[in-house]
Amino acid sequence: MVAEASPVAENISVEDVWDKLSGEKSTVLIDVRTRAEWSFVGLPDLTSLGKEVVLVEWQSFPGNRPNPAFVAELSERLAALGASQDTELYFLCRSGVRSQSAAQAMLKAGFTRCYNIAEGFEGPLDEVRHRGAQGGWKSKGLPWVQS
Prior knowledge:
Strand content: 15-25%
Number of strands: 9
Order of helices and strands: EHEHEEEEHEHEHE
Helix content: 25-40%
Shape: globular
CATH class: Alpha Beta
CATH architecture: 3-Layer(aba) Sandwich
CATH topology: Oxidized Rhodanese, domain 1
Mean pLDDT: 92
Largest sheet: 5 strands, parallel
CATH superfamily: Rhodanese-like domain
Number of domains: 1
């Protein structure tokens, strides 16, 4: 018996995500970072599009413990928005790693159009080990807010 491969979410650029969010009313942006990141680093701002970011932690801080209720919590939030299993879902984290895992979990749960935002909110580390200058939502000049 051959083990079935886990689904892999397609990577998409932040610019392409913005175009999709701007052009298609039903698309949803899901930020899977931690509460600490949302509070201290900032959040994408979709108010100009008449949308809100869905916030569900993939892991909890401190300790980076996996959120065992992630699929159930996100499924409930999506149902409240009127999203179906065919709705385009775009997953965002700091750099594109956790969001890939989160998107794959939702694909496995039966959602068919899950995409990973490749460079995330802050992008990769630069030569001095800082994020936010080389890629990601913030460095591309897309709208964001900080509390």
